[in-house]
């Protein structure tokens, strides 16, 4: 089994129209056993740690990793395992949930821009400004609560405007030394169901379960459409999206760590 593999198969090319039905949620594993998985991940984590030390010492670039996914896709676990060897002094993780009243009264990029990594550092966004073209698109009342002027509430134009704002912001960051890599953990609806049931059945996982997660499942198709539009419109050569098959958590972690390296 090859130690390294071609990660380009998971990359959304600039201008590519994405139909998530054509992107797998599971691929043949890049490991032969649980022991082999741990060995491979440990080797990649060590390599990533060495790279981070050079990145921190050079103090020339900033790196931003963005993680987006449906509930139970494994974002937290992927971040925890893949970045386990990284020096926390040079890495910060930010999770963006429901915006505060103050954040709502600013443009939609304001709250995340405050958390951008400085030179020599790695920033990780667990959810991000992309929520504003995902959950806000699926649930229009969120958009309507943002106190936008009436002239900006055209549902047909606002998303194109936000994609453009995101693209221009990421281009600006790239020109100023921030390198951006974005991961969509592509989970199947059946696998999400199994993970939700697992959270209910196992007492040690009960804390992960929320009725809100179940309620969001009814919007699955709407979310897939929103993700397809987002990936199609915002994956660029300078800030690419990777669609990572997420039904196998171990495989997803190996794929993510290899892409980062």
Provide structural commentary.
- With 261 residues, the chain is α/β, with parallel strands linked by helices.
- It contains 11 helices and 6 strands.
- The protein has helices at residues 34-58, 75-82, 101-104, 110-113, 135-138, 140-144, 158-175, 189-201, 211-217, 220-234, 249-260; strands at 11-12, 62-69, 91-95, 122-126, 178-186, 241-245.
- It is globular and about 55 Å long.
- It starts with 10 loop residues before the first strand and ends with a helix.
The CA-CA distance between the termini, in Å, is 19 Å
| Radius of gyration using CA atoms only | 18 Å
Low-confidence segments, given as residue ranges, are none
Number of helices: 11
- Rough outline: globular
Strand content: 5-15%
Question: How would you write the strand order of the largest sheet?
Answer: 1-6-5-2-4-3
Structural class: alpha/beta
**What is the makeup of the main sheet?**
6 strands, mixed
Indicate the mean pLDDT: 93
Query: What fraction, in percent, of the residue positions are helical?
Result: 40-55%
Kindly state the number of beta strands.
Answer: 6
Question: What letter string, H or E per element, gives the SSE order?
Answer: EHEHEHHEHHHEHHHEH
List the helices and strands and how they pair.
Layout: E1 11-12, H1 34-58, E2 62-69, H2 75-82, E3 91-95, H3 101-104, H4 110-113, E4 122-126, H5 135-138, H6 140-144, H7 158-175, E5 178-186, H8 189-201, H9 211-217, H10 220-234, E6 241-245, H11 249-260
Parallel strand pairs: 2-4, 2-5, 3-4, 5-6
Antiparallel strand pairs: 1-6
